[in-house]
Design brief:
With 183 residues, the chain is of the alpha+beta class. It contains five helices and five strands; from the N terminus they run ααββββαααβ.
Length: 183
C-alpha cells in the first residue's frame, strides 16, 4: 500500500512539473499536456512552428531597423546607416585632453543607397571623424555643446562631410546621443 502511494505521488509530481513547465514556456496560453495520441503531436508541431515565425519577425524587424523604414513626417521611405561604434572625440585645451565627447551618429539615406553606404563605412567613418576633430579644434564641443545653433552647425558640417563620400544619397545626419566626460 505504501509503495502504491509513493508511486502515485511521483506520477502526480511529474505531471505537475510538466504542467508548470508547459505553462511557463507558452506564456499566457492555456497549457495542455502532450499525450501519446496524435493530438499531442499536433500541439508539439504548433509549438515548434511558433519560434520559426518569431525568428522571421525578428529578422525582418532587424532588417527594417538597420536599412530603413517609413519616415513618419513625410510618408516616404528612407534608409538609415547605423554605425557599428560610437564616435569618440577628444577635447584638447592647453595641449592636454580635457574631456572626451562621445557621439552616436546615424545617417539618413536614400533607400537604394544603404547597401552601398555600408560597403563604404570605413571611408564615411574616417570623413566624419576628421570633421569631428576639426570641430573639436574650433571649440565646438566646449561649454555650448548642447545649444541648438551649435548642434545645427555640427550636423551641417557632418552632412557636408558625409556627402563628400556618399554623394547626394545622404539626406540628413542624426545625432542620437551626446555625452561629454571631463578628464
Amino acid at each position: 500500500m505504501i509503495k502504491i502511494i509513493a508511486i502515485v505521488i511521483q506520477v502526480i509530481a511529474v505531471a505537475g512539473g510538466a504542467y508548470v513547465g508547459v505553462s511557463l514556456s507558452t506564456g499566457s496560453q492555456k497549457p495542455t499536456l502532450a499525450s501519446a495520441d496524435s493530438g499531442g503531436d499536433k500541439q508539439a508541431k504548433k509549438d515548434n512552428a511558433k519560434p520559426e515565425k518569431e525568428k522571421e519577425k525578428k529578422k525582418k524587424s532587424k532588417k527594417d531597423g538597420k536599412y530603413g523604414g517609413k519616415d513618419k513626417d513625410s510618408g516616404e521611405s528612407t534608409g538609415f546607416m547605423k554605425f557599428s561604434r560610437q564616435f569618440v572625440v577628444p577635447v584638447v585645451s592647453r595641449n592636454n585632453v580635457s574631456a572626451l565627447v562621445i557621439l552616436d551618429i546615424n545617417l539618413e539615406l536614400d533607400p537604394s543607397a544603404t547597401e552601398n553606404a555600408y560597403s563604404r563605412e570605413p571611408k564615411v567613418r574616417d570623413a566624419l571623424l576628421k570633421t569631428l576633430l576639426q570641430l573639436s579644434n574650433e571649440d565646438a564641443f566646449g561649454g555650448s555643446l548642447l545649444e541648438q545653433e551649435n548642434l545645427a552647425q555640427i550636423r551641417a558640417r557632418l552632412l557636408t562631410s558625409a556627402k563628400t563620400v556618399l554623394g547626394e544619397d545622404v539626406v540628413d545626419v542624426l545625432i542620437l546621443n551626446v555625452a561629454r566626460q571631463d578628464v
